[in-house]
Amino acid sequence: MSRVTDVRGTLSTEGLRRLAYDLRIRDLQMIHGAALGHTGGDMSAMDILTVLYFRVLDIDPANPTNPDRDRFVMSKGHCSGALYTTLAHAGFFPTDELASYMQPLSRLNGHPDRKKVPGVETNTGPLGHGLPVALGMALGAKLRKKDWRTFVLTGDGELQEGSNWEAAMNAAHHGLDNLTLIVDRNRFQQGDSVANTVGLEPLADKFTAFGWTVREVDGHDIEALASLLGETPVTAGKPTAIIAHTHKGRGVSFMEDEAGWHHRVPTDEELERAIQELTERRDSHVA
User: Fold this and answer.
1) Rounded Cα–Cα distance for residues 128 and 158 (Å)
2) Overall domain count for the chain
3) What b/e sequence results for 34-44 when a residue is b if at least 16 CB atoms lie within 10 Å of its CB, and e otherwise?
4) Fewer beta carbons within 10 angstroms: which end of the chain, N or C?
5) Virtual CA dihedral for 75, 89, 258, 286, nearest 10 degrees?
6) Which residues contact 193 (CB under 8 A, 6 or more apart)?
7) Domain harbouring 183, CATH code
8) Is residue 160 part of a domain?
9) Is 80:90 a contact under the CB 8 Å cutoff?
């Protein structure tokens, strides 16, 4: 099987960093064109998605249903814009199709649909479903004695759903070291901060108590993400929880850490300003 890096060419850490900013720009243009989307969460997750699809995942865009592929579940399915942008640039479908995002009859719906979009492993949207589905995928690999891995990305507010903790218990019980959970810990959800809604701390201790190996990382540090995600499974016989500390609206000064940008669409002027800021950050050595 070919990795995505074989398709696009091997990207250095700096190349991945720059690509993540290019993907943010394209995502914002797509959201602006559709007048719909979840801007803040797309921006916080983009570095994670870039590292997964262009460095870590053992997948082949030319053969997206290869039974021996790694699986990735985007549990925070409302951030479909970030996923579609990444999938298109990784080669799963033409980048020109991004212009149809959320348009009538487009297959690029507001929430990902596995029957329509190559590379989407499962339909997501209702929060709290992704980790249970990923649990089943990882258990299936164990039962079939296969060595492919399953990765799942959740939002931190999403962890307020009890289904995640049922899945966490079962994953540890079955010793699913082929399962990696990544928490996009941007500290905000729709309408307010996570802490003001239903606090999660001590989050790392909770996953440890549930029998997981826990690692924390700067979710915008490309090199650290690549190193950590590349070493999975971290502990034999244990699932891995990676708490990725991120910023909602990452890369755009007036969007960062602002709950109002959960699903706000930028105006023409805001889009122009955001693209300028993202371009400047891409061309600098600022992470």
Assistant:
1) 6
2) 1
3) beebbbbbbbb
4) N
5) 120
6) 187, 259
7) 3.40.50.970
8) yes
9) no
Mean pLDDT, the chain, as a whole number? Answer: 94
Segment 202-255, tens digit of pLDDT? 999 999 999 999 999 999 999 999 999 999 999 999 999 999 999 999 999 999
Residue 100 has which token pair? Answer: 């149809």
Task: With respect to residue 255, please indicate whether it lies within any of the assigned structural domains.
Answer: no
Residues in the chain, total = 287
Asked whether residue 75 is domain-assigned, the answer is yes
Secondary structure (DSSP) of 184-236:
EE-SEETTEEHHHHH---SHHHHHHHTT-EEEEEETT-HHHHHHHHHT-S-ST
Q: Is the pLDDT of residue 261 over 80?
A: yes
For 23, other C-beta atoms within 10 Å of its C-beta total 25
Model pLDDT for residues 183-193, shown as the tens digit of each residue: 999 999 988 99
126 within some domain: yes
DSSP per residue, 73-88: EESSGGGHHHHHHHHH
- Can you name the residues that pair with 216 across neighbouring β-strands? 243
pLDDT tens, residue by residue, 60-97: 999 999 999 999 999 999 999 999 999 999 999 999 99
The whole model's pTM is what?
0.95
